[in-house]
Amino acid sequence: AAAAAAAAACKDIATAIRTASVLMGLRIAAKKCKIPEESVSFLVEIDQLRQAAEAIAPTSAGAVSMPRLRLVKASATNIAERFLSEETQYKLPVSKESAAAAYKTIQRTATLADDPDPLPGLDHGMLEALRGPFDEVEAALAPALAVLKEKNSSVNQVVRSKQNSDAPKHRVVVLGGGFAGAMTVFNLCNDPEERFHVTLIDPKNYWEDPTQQPMTLPDPGESVTQGRLANATVPFSKVVNKNGKHIAGLAMSISKTHVEVGSERTVIPFDTLVVNTGSAYNSNIKVVNPTLDYRYRQMKAEANVIKNSETILIIGGGLVGTEMTSNVATKYPEKKVIICQAGPYILPRVPEAHDKVTAFWESLGNVEVHLNERVIEFDDMLQEYKTDKGNTFNAGKVIRATGYKPNTDFLKDANTDPAIAAALDEKGFVKCDPNLRLHGSSNIYVSGDIVEDAYFGKTGVTRSGERFPERLAAVAGAHSYVVTNNIKRTITGETLASMDASRDPFGQPVEISLGLEKGLAVVHGDLAPLYVGMGFDFGVDNEEFVKYGCAISPNVPGLKDYISDLCAKATYIPEAHEGLRQFGAMDPKVLDPLAPPMPPPPGADGAGGGEADQAPADPAPEPTEEAKADVPEAAPAEAEE
């Protein structure tokens, strides 16, 4: 029955693109066949348009359905502009003549649709214009479909690790190649004693730093190998060496002994599992595109949409929304940027940030701020967005920055072990013990964004008097430090490392870009001198941090670039890797009984500095529902996928 279901799911292109796990398999197969990944995206968008148009009730013969016509016009012109125009960034397997003819027909028909009394059949004409390119792309994807069918013909096939030594190695499977995952893979692959065989499972073939996306989106760079996106990405081929391998695919379920991957549910056995599947946004900040080439072309296409839009709407005034607003507004001073925030403050987790940031936006002259206002109606086809205050925004580009959700749906799969599924909390994050082992498991570790709130540093005290967890790369690095040490120490029988988030008296430092020339540094006044001593110069009088806990600085964009470069190099260069691991070891939330003692942080008592001298801070109160409503998002997280 399972084999029959898997075969039926990929019997043809139309079926394959309508099931998420099979669709990802088709994207990966297209990559293997060297067919541009955007070919799959093109078919998906046209198929979705057809389904949406068919869902609108038909009218009588010869009549015009205006809702259907508006839908088809908006979508067809959007598809034609992005995929078929001469300026397109994408590379479809479509002849120039076919693309040009379809583009011309859609543009001409869309103009006729603007008539106050449009002729019937215009919607059908635009859909028919897309048929030719659709058929060409579908035919070009035939080899990829054949690869997918062959793979799905072997349901639950077991993949054995190929080991390069006579002695059997400890099998480690890592789900997700975000920052914590990539650091873990590189560390174990480069174990001096070569005790591990590491399998990385991720649909992509590269690591990406999502914290760079707000600065990258307006201008990704000159090519896939030059510019901001290139600097913020690393191919997994550099992360994984001869002691491991990368399997492109999505995790479907996990048990205490193996993982199921892909729509064919390939079985990957393990001795130890590290779950690091990260989080997802409503925007393109984090994606699961298998290829970096397509990611670059996708980013260039997004940048072109921003460039060609008169108005850009940002929904959400937290960290990501603030960065997106600032970077777009400074890149394009001639454009209008609207930011709509549900609560009364911008950056509500940083009490003194609101006035500083809004004053900066006012100085730009092209940012319109709406507070205590929610967008409640979305019409992406007509590019109209209505709020609960009765305002209607017309925007050529909308960026949704209203938070993220953990990628843990596979833990709810019917094939996932019930004891493992029980580790999910009410928000979908994973409960674990202080050693970062999944609740109730001795051989399954968790790290990165999916970890429950208790194992993250928190903000300073907000206006509501509470503190909120921040899912940042620095904490992900600390998670990886604990997890890799504990995997090794489980083998040797040594004492495990652990996390204690109550040991966080200064709060989590954050750098927030306000364009490429300024940014907001958020750091405790007692902690700032330590960072300056390590080379992270904020370029601001420390009294500013003592008084406000944050300051606008011209050094922040450069610091963000520097930190991103450090993170990237730490995933494949041994010296950089060890250097960044030491940052994880220095995190006060990390308790490592085998590590050398760390010096006390600034502001601590002069004597001691050992564990007994650093009493845990009082636990922060849980956020109230009212406070949560005022906080739209956390930080852009730690590059998980």
So how many helices? 22
* Number of E strands: 24
Report the mean per-residue pLDDT as an integer.
Answer: 88
Main sheet record: 5 strands, parallel
> Strand share of the residues?
5-15%
What proportion of the residues is helical, as a percent range? 25-40%
Radius of gyration: 26 Å
Which geometry do the CA atoms define?
globular
Distance between the terminal alpha carbons, to the nearest Å? 31 Å
User: Which structural class matches the secondary elements?
Assistant: alpha/beta
Q: State the low-pLDDT regions, or none.
A: 601-641
Q: Please give the order of strands in the largest beta sheet.
A: 5-2-1-9-19
